[in-house]
Amino acid sequence: MAITKVTRHNTPAFEARLTSDESLTDDTSTKLDVDAEIYDTDGCYDSSTNFRFLPTTAGKYFVYGAVYYQPSASNTMNSFSTQLKKNGSTLKVTYLSSSSSPMGAGDIPQCAIVDMNGSSDYLELYAFAAFSTGTMLAKGRIDTFFGAFRLII
């Protein structure tokens, strides 16, 4: 009896990071232009126009992202959250808030497992901040990133 070797890969897969700071609007979800691909196995991540992952293979995907938030010196930030969206609808949210005093800078990661149809489903990374004065940035640094890979089940 011959043994057949089956090779399976966790692809399509990608990871990218934000290279430029992006200003956030108070109390508004902002899609981040995560533009620097670290890898993209099948060319399914658009790093120049829509900044979204549109995998061409159906299946379950592990998706993750993180946003580093930085307020200005005069900012009174009340809350911020990292959001993963599928087809424009919120899939998962990680949220941090403080009712007693303004918060400083911080990084909020998020992850989820999601079914993708392999033709029209897409994933995006969003940032949200609530603040009363000053400005808020999603920082273009190595700790603002977005990625996904297909799970082998």
Detail the topology: elements first, then pairings.
Layout: E1 13-17, E2 22-24, E3 28-31, E4 36-40, E5 59-71, E6 77-86, E7 89-97, E8 106-116, E9 123-131, E10 136-138, E11 145-150
Antiparallel strand pairs: 1-4, 1-11, 2-10, 3-9, 5-8, 5-10, 5-11, 6-7, 6-9
Any overview of this molecule?
Helices cover 0% and strands 51% of the residues. The protein is mostly beta strands and 153 residues long. It starts with 12 loop residues before the first strand and ends with a strand. It is elongated. It has strands spanning 13-17, 22-24, 28-31, 36-40, 59-71, 77-86, 89-97, 106-116, 123-131, 136-138, 145-150.
Features:
153 residues, Jelly Rolls
CATH-derived topology? Jelly Rolls
Helical percent range?
under 10%
Give the termini separation: 26 Å
Strand content: over 45%
| Number of separate strands | 11
What structural class is derived from the secondary structure elements? mainly beta
Mean pLDDT: 89
Give the CA-based shape: elongated
Q: Indicate the CATH architecture.
A: Sandwich
Helix run count? 0
Could you write a compact summary of the structure shown?
The chain has strands at 13-17, 22-24, 28-31, 36-40, 59-71, 77-86, 89-97, 106-116, 123-131, 136-138, 145-150.
